[in-house]
Amino acid sequence: MVPLLLGISLAAFALIRLAPGGPFDRERQVPPEIERQLNAKYHLDQPVWRQYLIYLGGLTRGDLGPSMRYRNHTVNDILAAGLPVSLTIGLLAFGLAVGLGVPLGFVTAIRRGRWPDQWGSLAALTAICVPTFVAGPVLVMVLGVKLRWFPVALWGSPWHLVLPVVTLGLYFAGRVARLMREGMLKTLPAEFIVTARAKGLSEGRIFWRHAFRLGVLPVVSYAGPLLADLLTGSFVVENLFQLPGLGVFMVNSSLNRDYTMVVGLVLLYAVMLLVLNLIVDVAYVWLDPRVRHE
Amino acid sequence: MSEPADTRHAADAPRTAARASPTRQAWRRFWQNRAAVVSAVLLAGLGLGVLVGPALSAYAPDAFVGGQFEPPSWRHWAGTDVHGRDLLTRVLVGARLSLVVGAVGTAVSLVLGVLWGALAGYVGGRVDAWMMRTVDGLYAMPTLVFVIVVVTVLNGLVEQWEGAGGTAVPAVWIRTAGLLLGIAAVSWLTMARIVRGEVLSLRTRPFVEASRALGAGTARIVLRHILPNVSGVVIVYLALTVPTVMLYESFLSFLGLGLQPPQASLGSLIAEGATQINPIRVYWWMIVAPAGTLVTLLLALNFVADGLRDAFDPRARHPGA
Fold first, then answer.
1. I want to staple A247 with a disulfide (CB 3.0 to 4.6 A). Which of A39, A238, A256, B265 is the partner?
2. Please, what are the domains in chain A?
3. Which residue in A112, A113, A254 is closest to B145 by CB distance?
4. Distance, in angstroms, between B244 CA and closest chain A CA?
């Protein structure tokens, strides 16, 4: 895991350096002496490989360095401030996606070809065709501005969470439902299901105890990257609802050439992805007996 | 699409000469899928609409032709925007751009993804490991950051050229190319993985060994024997790539990273509409027109993709049986 993270940090570091311009471009023109001092403070006067080594040195002490855009803030500060917001929204949206998607996919699979499947599959397909930047403004317009049921922006009471979470969760609920349906449809014709039927088990028991365990596997493997995505914040949702999360930084730091911020965020995402994928692997072994016996 | 005779020898292909080739059977199944065919026709209609629509429209997409924020009327079917431009014309032009980006991104994913995956899977060993680690590495980047960096690098280059005295090609074109390249750079990864997986299992099949024994070279085996056999999976995945790529484009344009105003794309039109949301007056058409178009396009594309998958993927064919 450590070499992989090293590689990713190096790649992110190199990639953002390839982009033309620097973090201080948008400032008003400063005298050359001050610019030199600025560059010296952030080690930008050193060769790039040296800068990377300095960065790695900080990293071993858990220090992600100073932000080059937000003066007097370290990347650690900004992450610590934004992460709780993004985690809350992300976890709730994940809960919505799984809580809605898994039952929907399950029902459409076991009622394949009949009306619950036709309507349910249409709903799931529609959900994946409505990206968050469409669902968000529409929800704000209808439920927020027109009907005034929910506050349209900012961060405070639990009511403020409803629209962002629904906006973010619905799209992924559709994806989860489709994966769940596909997984179930692949599992249902399997021989061990036929055996279970032959043993005289009830349909409910077959579906829940036997088919579900394997049918949910595609959802489980999708859950890792999905959760990593959701927990690091969504730019669209945070931008639209004016939430102080990390998703906004993800985009703005690359645009502002805030080098340390970009690498810090990429590393945060990568760590989450790796840890979550590890959990997914463990869940796989627990759910699928075939993996266990290999 | 003609099927080379060699695939007949694949273990699971039907052997009787009387039956149509698997590919032809698959297309027949596709045409029997009502939702998919209706969507395909709808897509063709929309495609025609965005091609000839702007020319038929009485308004130019960038011209200020009406009052500010006029609701839909006979003069302006989809209303007008903040500058009094005809929204329908802008939506049509934007949809055309989205479709072009979708097509080009998909073409890159087809050529680069298929060749990369086929080569890695067929040659195997160290080459395979090296090629697939590259793909994994690109995967581990947050896609958004990656695309943003590629797009800004290209935009920076454009500015340098412009500063150096300009080029024969208009900067708008180069910018569009930058956007396309950025999207294309991430859109081929999944295709490469899928094709490699298929090729890995195909290359040990008897018919491949047979042609190798007959003295066929790597290029011939890959192009003539292996690729035709992955065509089903490739078609299915291509159909899924088009909506994904279009989503990327709309998203980037929504962020303001796509094309520069006054050029329109569905994403930037939705973003314009979203900025006009306020508690006093609701300009619903500014959201509904571009968003409705985008959602309809995506729905139709996904229906077609689902139809293709049901028709081409042998494992998805009779699941309930």
1. A238
2. 87-246 (1.10.3720.10)
3. A254
4. 10
pLDDT > 70? residue B163: no
Which one, of A245, A244, A249, A266, lies nearest residue A69 by Cα? A249
Question: Distance (Å, rounded) from C-alpha A152 to C-alpha A240?
Answer: 9
- Bridge-partner residues for A74, per DSSP? A66
Mutate which of B134, B144, B145 to disrupt the A interface (most A C-beta within 10 Å)? Answer: B145
Between A11-20, A213-222, B152-161, B262-271, the lowest mean confidence (pLDDT) is in: B152-161
Tell me the shortest Cα–Cα distance from B218 to chain A, in angstroms: 33
CA angle centred on A289, ends A206 and A121, rounded to 5°: 50
Q: Specify the pLDDT at position A250.
A: 79
At B260 the pLDDT is: 66
Sequence-distant (≥ 6) Cβ neighbours of residue B77 within 8 angstroms: B88
Does residue B46 belong to any structural domain of this protein? no
- CB-count burial class (<10 Å; 0-12, 13-18, 19+) for A32: exposed
Nearest residue of chain A to residue B158 (CA atoms): A20
Query: Residue B308's domain spans which residues?
Result: 100-316
In a domain, B132, yes or no: yes
- On whether residue B178 sits in a domain, the answer given is yes
Q: How far apart (Å, rounded) are the C-alpha atoms in residues B242 and B247?
A: 9
- Asked if the Cβ–Cβ distance from B153 to A137 is below 8 Å, we say no
Tens digits of per-residue pLDDT, A162-171? 888 888 888 8
* Identity of the residue in B152, B159, B279 whose CB atom sits nearest the CB atom of A19: B152
Whole-model pTM: value is 0.77
Sorting pLDDT into bands at 50, 70 and 90, what band is B22? confident
Structure tokens at A166: 């629904």
Residue A125 has pLDDT above 70, yes or no: yes
Average pLDDT of the segment spanning A51-72: 78
Token duo for residue B74:
């006979």
A120 vs B contacts (CB less than 8 Å): none
Residues of A in Cβ contact (< 8 Å) with B159: 20
Facing residue for B250 by CB, picked from A131, A188, A255: A131
Highest mean pLDDT among A250-254, B180-184, B294-298: B294-298
Q: Please name the member of B142, B160, B315 whose beta carbon is closest to the beta carbon of A269.
A: B142
The per-residue pLDDT of chain A, averaged, comes to: 81
Residue B307 lies in a domain: yes
Task: List Cβ neighbours of A169 (8 Å cut-off, separation of 6 or more).
Answer: A92, A93, A94, A95, A96, A97, A100
CB contacts, 8 Å: B145 with chain A: 12, 15, 250, 254, 262, 265-266
What pLDDT is stored for residue A94 in this prediction? 92
- What is the nearest CA distance from B253 to chain A, expressed in angstroms? 11
CATH number of the domain to which B121 belongs: 1.10.3720.10
* Look-up of token digits 């396009």: B297
Number of domains in chain B: 1
Rg, chain B, Cα only: 23
Q: What ipTM score was computed for the predicted complex, to two decimals?
A: 0.72
Q: Which residues of B touch A131 (CB under 8 A)?
A: 247, 250-251, 294, 298
A173 to chain B, closest Cα gap in Å: 16
Which amino acid is present at A78?
A: I
Q: How far is B73 from chain A (nearest CA, A)?
A: 21
Question: Could you tell me which chain B residue has the CA closest to the CA of A272?
Answer: B140
Q: What is the mean pLDDT of chain B?
A: 75
| Record: contact B277-A136, CB cut-off 8 A | no
